[in-house]
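REVIEWER CHECKLIST
Item 1: Sequence provided? yes
Item 2: Single chain? yes
Item 3: Sequence as submitted:
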Amino acid sequence: MRQKFLVLGFIALLTFGFVNTLFAMKYIPADSARQDAGKNDLIGRWDISMDENGKTVPSWLEVKLSGNRTLTGYFVGVSGSARPIAKVNFNDGKFNFTIPPQWEPGERDFIIEGELSGAEIHGTLVNSEGKKYNWKGVKAPYLKRTGLLVWDKPIALFNGKDLTGWKALGKNQWVVKNGVLTSPHSGANLISEQKFTDFKLHVEFKYQKGSNSGVYLRGRYEVQIEDSSKDAHPSSVLFSGIYGYLSPSEIAALGPDQWQSFDIMIVGRMVTVIANGKTVISNQEIPGITGGALDSNEGEPGPVYIQGDHGPIEFRKIVITPIK
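Item 4: Structure as written out by the authors:
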């Protein structure tokens, strides 16, 4: 009889444990599973369009998983470089985070709030001056390329005579002197009328001491031109860096008042930069748009765009070889 009670007791314990396990599987992980699914939907890169008083301006967000539960990321606004996000708070499909101002006026942290809506996100941004804007975003394309590269014929974007094939964003200060495309002072940026997808680009340029410019690929990704010291530690915001993302292996600048060159190849998101004959970035991925981008439509062709609002700059050759 005693053995019978022991057996029955053992069966009861097993049954109780099994029921508890089923209960836990049914109720405890359910919310957690939904939360994890939501996090997984948010993780990734997002191309964002923001409404600034009726004008559409580009932005970009990346959300990453740090460890097994914390979301972090990077954010690119209308200006400046990619800014790290210490923590993205996420709950029931909604998220928020803050970032400090960079080049913007005002002392407040930016407050970004959003929510998942199918394959899109949307929300609001309150900037460092307290102004509030609406935005919406879609998943950024991978831009993976397959197959052999076949190049078309080179195209001289600058003809050495005038601004044919270019347009200025704003009041134009660009002139052509002795076959040189010149921006004598800060003013409008210059944009090619033709748009391109994948290409090789050769540019020859000269800057004055302390000046700053850049060449934007597809109008979205800036290769930095700046009077950087050769002894400076390589940085993404210095000479030949992909602004805010990719640092060159060295500062291969020749210094101010010297003709210098970039040879750049971009295929999908992969970029190579050769500065004055030295490969300083070799087939590295550009994660997203840089500050100053014309738009966030990363899957579309875009122009070559030259920064003219950061000081004097000269170009004597701009040649592009598109992919067939």
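Item 5: Key structural point noted by reviewer: The longest strand covers residues 55-66.
Item 6: Recommendation: ____
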